[in-house]
Amino acid sequence: MARIRTIKPEFFMNEELARHCSHAARLLAIGLLQLADCQGRMRWIPAVVGAHVFPWETIDLSPLLHELCTVDYLRIYRVRGREYAWIPGFNKHQRLTGKEAAAKSQFPSWDEREEEEKQPPAKVQQEGSAGSFPGKHPDAQEQGTGNREQGKINSIVETSSLGRAKPDDSDARSVIEYLNEKAGRRYEPVEANLKLIRARLKEKGRTIDQLKAVVDRKVEEWRGTKFEKYLRPATLFSAEKFGQYVGELGTAIHKPDEKKALPEWARLPFDDDKLWGHAKTHGFSNPGTMNYTQYRQRLRSEIEARLSKDDGQ
């Protein structure tokens, strides 16, 4: 049964969700809050979840589930052969009232999951990680065991009641590795990225070399400009843009005017711990009592104002 829940502004400002989860995955995250009981638990039945969150569309929940599990917004587990879902940060961000505040969950807890699943959830390190995330488990292991734990998440998603066989992603993974090498990034071979590349490779006439050629061109064209931030799988391999990028192969590259390229002071560091040092060096305001997310937003506004002023001169 769906319930009325509160969506706080922090949800939309959360940088880890924004960086590593698609729009559809974030919409699913909101819908799951309504399906969760007083302890953030629910039965995991994809058909029921999909009917509630996407009633007018046919959506494959498996890649969206993978995205939410990867950032530890959601955990899937089994108890006595049944699958359940739990939102770890639910009670921290929802204020329950009335009968629900005193109620007990009718679903088994995460701690009751089947023995072979009892390993700490992964703390996945990805590019631009913003640190703490509402619901991140305090005992999550560091990257030393990340590969093993990431495999656990993959196993849960791939063997859930969706019943889909894991595809051979060696070609798609090689494209991700190539992009990371050429663009100096650290994108993970998560389902959201692999799905885009698989889809392009299934299109008639598409080859791995063609995808890599698009990477080469866009790195040369966008590096050092305000478009550099779009050197990412979601942009390069999207169904809407990829055909256009292929059509540009072999043509002359026209880089944006140098005065429009972002100067060094306008490029915020990915590492939150370096924000204040960068701001202080280039004459921006100090953080005061703001958290990293708020301060990063403030700096972006100041950068935009300064760039607009420079363009007007």
Description:
With 313 residues, this protein is mainly alpha-helical. The protein has 3 domains: 9-158, no CATH class; 170-258, no CATH class; 263-312. It is 46% helix and 4% strand. It has 15 helices and 3 strands. It has a 3-stranded antiparallel beta sheet with strand order 1-3-2, covered by helices on one side. Helix 3 (23-35) packs across helix 5 (61-70), helix 5 (61-70) runs antiparallel to helix 8 and helix 9 runs parallel beside helix 11 (208-222). The chain is flat, with a radius of gyration of 22 Å. 23% of the residues are buried. Mean pLDDT is 77; it is low at 121-146 and 158-166.
How are the elements arranged and paired?
Layout: H1 9-13, H2 15-20, H3 23-35, E1 41-43, H4 46-53, H5 61-70, E2 75-79, E3 82-86, H6 90-93, H7 98-102, H8 146-158, H9 170-183, H10 191-202, H11 208-222, H12 233-236, H13 242-248, H14 275-281, H15 292-312
Antiparallel strand pairs: 1-3, 2-3
Helix pairs in contact: 3-5, 5-8, 9-10, 9-11
What is the typical, i.e. mean, pLDDT? 77
Question: Could you estimate the helical fraction of the residues in percent?
Answer: 40-55%
What is the count of β-strands?
3
Strand order of the largest sheet: 1-3-2
Using the CA coordinates, give the radius of gyration: 22 Å
Query: How much strand?
Result: under 5%
Main sheet makeup = 3 strands, antiparallel
Q: What's the number of helices?
A: 15
**Helix and strand run:** HHHEHHEEHHHHHHHHHH
**Alpha-beta content class:** mainly alpha
Number of domains: 3
